[in-house]
Amino acid sequence: MKNEELIFSDYETNGGKKEYSRVGGCYYTAKMAVLDYLMKIKKQSGLIILREAYDGYVPLGVFNVRENIKEAMMRPYLEFETLEDCLKYSGTKLRISVNRYIKQGTLLNEMLHTKQTTLDMYFKKG
Q1: What is the pLDDT of residues 47-70, one digit of tens each?
Q2: From CA 102, how far away is CA 7, in angstroms rounded?
Q3: Which long-range contacts (CB under 8 A, 24 or more apart) does 86-89 make?
Q4: How many domains does the chain have?
C-alpha cells in the first residue's frame, strides 16, 4: 500500500530479553554489530536505533542492517544534553515524525516519561 507507515519496535534492558524479537533478525544483527564495536573500544553503552525504509526499498537481508550499523559506529558522533534534544535533532533526519516513534515504541515513551535515577536520590535530605 502506497504511503503506508508501519513502525516495528523491540528492545531489551540490562535484565535481558525474555522472548524472541518481534523484529526478528534485524534486531539481533544490529545488536551484534553494536556489541562488537563496544567490545572493541572497551565501553558499555545504551543505544537506540531508528531505521526507516522507503518505497522502493528491496530487503536484501540482515547483512545490509549489520553493515550499515558497523559503518555508523565508525563515524563521528554527536553528543546531546538531553534525550529530548537528541530526538529533536533526529527528527530533522527522519521522514516519519519522532512523535510516532515515541507513541508506538515502548522504550522511548518510558525513557521520556520516567525520572532518571540519580545518586542523591538515595541519601536523605535534612
Answers
A1: 899 988 888 887 778 899 999 999
A2: 10
A3: none
A4: 1
Is residue 53 included in any domain, yes or no? yes
110: cell is 518510558
On whether residue 3 sits in a domain, the answer given is: no
Domain that holds residue 82: 25-122
Predicted model pTM: 0.77
- 25 grid coordinates: 533478525
| Distance between start and end Cα atoms, the chain | 61
Q: Is residue 4 part of a domain?
A: no
For residue 67, being part of any structural domain is answered with yes
* DSSP symbols for 27-82: HHHHHHHHHHHHHHHT------------TT-----HHHHHHHHHHHHHS-----SS
In this structure, the number of other CB atoms found within 10 A of the CB of residue 105 comes to 18
pLDDT < 70: residue spans in the chain: 1-3, 116-122, 124-126
Q: What is the pLDDT of residue 125?
A: 61
DSSP state of 114: S
Over residues 101-111, the pLDDT tens digits come to: 999 888 888 88
